[in-house]
Design brief:
Elements: E1 3-11, E2 14-23, E3 26-30, E4 34-38, E5 44-48, E6 51-56, E7 59-64, H1 68-77, H2 82-86, E8 93-97, H3 102-111, E9 114-117, E10 124-130, H4 140-143, E11 147-158, H5 166-175, E12 179-185, E13 190-196
Length: 202
């Protein structure tokens, strides 16, 4: 999840107190007015005297962040890759089930070499499961037998759909004895939910 702070923001002729939130894919502000800045559209970013200035196609926005200004500027300049956010390491043992996203596959294969698909093997560090429907979530019960006790099942599900919601993924994980500990923006259309075995069962 992103970091959220109370601050003053100025955008164009408007200024307002509100909340700014920095997510891996964007900077969001909610106050008397709202706006968002996709990080991929940022043209310039600068931090001086506690002020963060971000230039993007719609103009320039300024945020009074104090000590956080420099930190946020760094994160905007050097965003983490998807694979970094998912926690994959060169030594990770991975199975991918049903995910065809080309950007994900390219990044994954650039980092890791022990990757299987379609059928899981034992002793996995990660399973990436595509869940396009609630029925796909039923696989969680058997899949957890293939991960290490400290392993991870990432459930990749559509954003903003009614037929499978974030709550459905969390509820299914809980029903199968897993804990939802993190959410990551997987792509413009999908979200990844991190499910792990509770400490008491490891």
């Amino acid at each position: 999840m992103g970091q959220e702070v109370q601050c003053t923001a100025r955008f164009g002729e408007r200024a307002s107190q509100g909340k700014a939130r920095l997510e891996p894919d964007g900077l969001f502000f909610r106050g008397d007015f709202r706006f968002s800045i996709p990080l991929k559209e940022v043209k310039a970013v600068d931090a001086k005297k506690g002020q963060l200035k971000v230039t993007f196609p719609e103009g320039e926005a300024t945020f009074d962040l104090g000590p956080l200004a420099e930190k946020w500027a760094f994160k905007i300049r050097y965003p983490k890759s998807l694979i970094d956010k998912l926690g994959v390491k060169p030594t990770s043992k991975i199975t991918v089930l049903g995910i065809k996203d080309e950007n994900f596959w390219k990044q994954l294969q650039d980092v890791a070499t022990d990757i299987s698909k379609d059928s899981p093997t034992e002793g996995l560090d990660f399973i990436f499961l595509s869940a396009e429907s609630k029925e796909d979530l039923r696989q969680l019960k058997s899949l957890q037998d293939y991960i290490k006790r400290n392993g991870v099942i990432w459930v990749v599900a559509p954003k903003g759909k009614q037929h499978i919601k974030e709550g459905d993924v969390i509820a299914a994980g809980k029903e199968m004895g897993l804990v939802d500990v993190k959410v990551v923006s997987f792509s413009e259309t999908h979200t990844a939910h991190k499910l792990v075995i509770p400490l008491a069962r490891r």
